[in-house]
TrEMBL record:
It comes from the Eukaryota. GO terms for cellular component: mitochondrion. InterPro entries: Ac_transferase_dom_sf, Acyl_transferase_dom, Acyl_Trfase/lysoPLipase, Mal-CoA-ACP_Trans/PKS_FabD, Malonyl_transacylase_ACP-bd. Its EC number is 2.3.1.39. GO terms for biological process: fatty acid biosynthetic process. The keyword Transit peptide does not apply. Keywords: Acyltransferase, Hydrolase, Transferase. Residues 64-411 form the Malonyl-CoA:ACP transacylase (MAT) domain. This is [acyl-carrier-protein] S-malonyltransferase. PANTHER family: MALONYL-COA-ACYL CARRIER PROTEIN TRANSACYLASE, MITOCHONDRIAL. It catalyses: holo-[ACP] + malonyl-CoA = malonyl-[ACP] + CoA.
Length: 438
């Protein structure tokens, strides 16, 4: 007689001591959630006891990381107070890699200094990985045991590759810092040589059906699609004329990057000839990320990834490990990285290519059937973007689904309990899986 009804997979188990304790995630003895190996069930079959591994039909889970713009002075404080020993080790590591007291800038500012890309980008990435390490050390939550995919928005892709086991944290942090310095230098050079102002502007449409014609009109207006190898015409334009769709964030939001004057002209053109009026919002960015102006950063990353790791003890190993432990989604293709060589190429090109965030979410949601999404890192921008696309769709929301974010120690317990509560088999899923063993 086969087992019936929903069966909980003990992937996230609460030990009795945790259940009896009144301590929460910000105490010295926090709630500890331990992943267990896949269950083995025993079934009477032709007079013999048969041991069968429970098929892994958990709702698929993606962990995602934020990009620039979520930084704020003091964002490390809750983590330093809740987990002083763990965070102090990481702080020393961060400052050693970048070569100065970045931790002081993060904690004490001023904000204008933290907002500079060479400070903001490594600060955000390091904070995201700090949270991952705390989850691993204090809650026995390992990414490879609890996630099927990792991905990150722009800068966040570097954190996703660390969490997925492709690049060591120190190597990734070093690349992020050098990349951000190259961004700043390229922007300064464009300003000195050509004048003008450079940055990023978000365009938000009121309806999803407006986005495709909006993107088509922009590409027609600027005269090229990409700064990558497929379209070389972008190199023929001076920086003052260069504009690119930097991000496609959702079904109603894109971000333009490049000359602010050129972007203003483009927006006026769209409003006059396209028949609708997208809302334009200037972003707090000191460089036009993902535009052709950022091309010097591509060479910096290519050179760094051509060598071995710079981490002590790994000097004879390639800087990229492939495959990693968890499938990671590329910003450029919105699909998994397929090889070490492709990963290096796409990660370098990402500096001047469009971040296909919406396509990445659609791919995981519709093709890969991801039902649980966990944002790790400062701010709620990523969670809100993902939530609007997959987590608030009325009848399409299923049992075993959720969109969460861990930005503060107080949120850890809620998120891990949410994962535990949604980690189960439905009746039909369990019966189908069991029948396959007959």
């Amino acid at each position: 007689m086969p087992l019936r009804g929903p069966l909980r997979r003990p992937a996230l188990a609460l030990p009795p001591s945790a259940l009896l304790s009144s301590n929460n995630a910000i105490t010295k003895t926090p709630l500890r959630i331990s992943p267990l190996p896949r269950s083995v069930v025993v079934r009477q079959r032709r007079g013999h006891a048969t041991h069968l591994p429970v098929p892994d039909t958990r709702p698929k889970t993606a962990i995602f990381f934020p990009g620039q713009g979520v930084q704020r002075v003091g964002m490390l404080t809750p983590w330093l107070e809740a987990f002083p020993s763990t965070t102090s080790e990481i702080i020393d590591e961060i400052d050693s890699v970048v070569g100065y007291k970045l931790s002081d800038v993060i904690q004490n500012g001023p904000g204008k200094d933290l907002n500079l890309s060479p400070n903001a980008q490594p600060a955000i990435m390091a904070t995201s990985i700090m949270i991952i390490r705390i989850l691993e050390k204090h809650f026995n939550f390992r990414v490879e045991d609890n996630a099927h995919f990792t991905l990150g928005h722009s800068l966040g892709e570097f954190a996703a590759l660390v969490a997925g086991g492709y690049i060591h944290f120190q190597d990734s942090l070093r690349m992020v810092h050098k990349r951000a310095e190259a961004f700043s230098n390229a922007t300064r050079q464009a300003e000195e040589m050509y004048g003008g102002e450079y940055g990023m502007v978000a365009l938000v449409s009121s309806k999803a059906e407006h986005l495709p014609p909006l993107c088509a009109a922009i590409r027609e207006f600027v005269g090229y699609d990409s700064a990558g190898p497929k379209v070389e015409s972008a190199d023929d334009w001076s920086p003052i004329d260069q504009v690119l769709i930097a991000n496609v964030n959702s079904k109603t939001q894109i971000v333009l990057s490049g000359s602010i004057e050129r972007i203003k002209t483009l927006v006026a053109h769209v409003r006059q000839f396209l028949g609708h009026d997208p809302r334009a919002v200037r972003l707090k960015s000191d460089s036009p990320f993902h535009s052709p102006i950022m091309k010097p950063a591509v060479g910096v990353l290519q050179q760094m990834m051509a060598g071995n790791s710079m981490v002590k003890g790994r000097e004879n190993e390639d800087i990229v490990t492939f495959p990693g432990k968890v499938t990671c989604i590329s910003n450029v293709t919105a699909r998994p990285f397929e090889s070490r060589e492709q990963l290096k190429d796409l990660l370098a090109r990402q500096a001047v290519e469009t971040v296909q965030w919406w396509d990445s979410i659609k791919y995981l949601d519709q093709s890969m059937k991801v039902r649980r999404w966990v944002g790790i890192g400062p701010g709620y921008v990523g969670r809100n973007l993902v939530g609007k696309e997959v987590g608030m769709r009325g009848k399409d929301v299923i049992k075993g689904a959720g969109v969460w974010a861990i930005t503060d120690p107080k949120e850890i317990e809620e998120v891990l309990r949410g994962l535990e509560e949604t980690d189960f088999y439905e009746d039909d899923e369990w019966q189908d899986a069991w029948d396959r063993w007959d």
